[in-house]
Structure formats: C-alpha cells, structure tokens
Amino acid sequence: MRVAIAALLVLYAAGAAAVPRAKSAEECMIYADLALVASTFAKHGIARDQAERMLPDMYEIGTPDAVEIAQRIVESAYELLRVEPKMFSRALVNTCVSRGGAMDAILGVKL
Questions:
Q1: Rounded distance, CA 4 to CA 19, Å?
Q2: Which of 11, 28, 49, 102 could form a disulfide with 96 if both were Cys (CB 3.0 to 4.6 A apart)?
Q3: C-alpha closest to that of 90 among 4, 10, 3
Q4: Local structure of 77: helix, strand or coil
Q5: How much is the pLDDT for 15?
Q6: For 41-47, what is the mean pLDDT?
C-alpha cells in the first residue's frame, strides 16, 4: 500500500504548468468518479484511445479546464496500472477537497 501511495505522489514531478483546479467539492467528486472509471478501464485492458472516446459520453466535459483535467486523469490512470481504481479515486477526491480543488499532488504538473 505504501508503494501505491508513493507511486501516486511520484506524479508530482517538477514542472511549470499546474493542473486546473476543481471549482467545488462537487466537482472533486465528479472527477473522482471519472478517475474510478478511467482506472477501471485501464485495469481491465480497455485501450486508452477507446476510453478517451467513451468518457465524454459519460461525463459532461465542456470547458477547456475540464478537458485538461479529464485528460490528466486518464493519463494518470493508465500510468498507474498497479494502483487499485478505488484507491486512485479516493486519493484524488481527498487531495482535491483538502487542497481547495488542487489535484497536482495526484495528477502531477507538466512542463
């Protein structure tokens, strides 16, 4: 379990562009649900491109910030195949809510 948590935190690599913030605790919950679905797809071998085509059918991803957050969640889900989907989802929502919508500690930052 420590290894899985450490793997989540490794994604916090140094970089310049932070992940956009969720605007409310409700958004944090929605992104956590998306993380659960994306991570489950990854765990069960659903191709990433197929998952990226299906998720907009399940979630309203209309703003540029929402698109970026969703892309980062999918990217992280497919990079963290050894982390259980429920654990990824819980870590995301806990981080998001406790940090006022910030998810960089889980989703990392990009150069």
A1: 21
A2: 28
A3: 4
A4: helix
A5: 41
A6: 96
